[in-house]
Each structure stands twice: as structure tokens, then as C-alpha cells.
Write a structure and sequence with these properties.
Elements (H helix, E strand, L loop, with lengths): L1 E5 L4 H17 L4 E5 L2 H5 L8 E4 L2 E5 L5 H7 L3
Parallel strand pairs: 1-2
Antiparallel strand pairs: 1-3, 3-4
């Protein structure tokens, strides 16, 4: 599963990454996480607020950290 975290690398971005890794591990899902740091690249996803989470090319959350249950639903195999 291809995961992108859009943001500047701030503490909220790091928290989103950790929660995503935890949710994937709990479900036994293999993921690849890429951080997108460049504003021009972030804007290609039409995201205004960060951090944002992109799962397999689809923006799932922007400007907030999703709940663990939301993450689990999005990462369900």
C-alpha cells in the first residue's frame, strides 16, 4: 500500500506517520511511506492544510490527524 504524508515534517506530520505505521502493523498490512515536503508537490493534491494523508493516490485527510479507527478503515486490506 502506497502512503504519502504531505507536510513540512513538523511534529504533527511525524505523529501522523507513527499513527499510520501503528494502524498498518495492527492489521498486518505492508505499507510504503513517502514524505512530500515541497509546497509545489503538496499543491498537486489540492490540499490546503497539512498534515495530509494520501492512500494509494487518494487524499483521505487534510489539515488534521485522523483517529486510529479512521486510519484502520482506510488501511484495511
Amino acid at each position: 500500500m502506497d502512503i504519502k504524508i504531505l507536510g513540512t515534517g513538523c511534529a504533527r506530520c511525524q505523529r501522523l506517520e507513527q499513527l499510520t505505521r501503528d494502524a498498518a502493523a495492527a492489521q498486518g498490512v505492508a505499507i510504503q511511506i513517502e514524505h512530500v515536503l515541497e509546497p509545489a508537490e503538496i499543491m498537486k493534491y489540492h490540499v490546503v492544510g497539512t498534515p495530509a494523508l494520501v492512500v494509494n493516490g487518494e487524499v483521505k485527510a487534510a489539515g488534521r490527524i485522523p483517529s486510529p479507527s479512521e486510519l484502520a478503515g482506510w488501511l484495511r486490506p
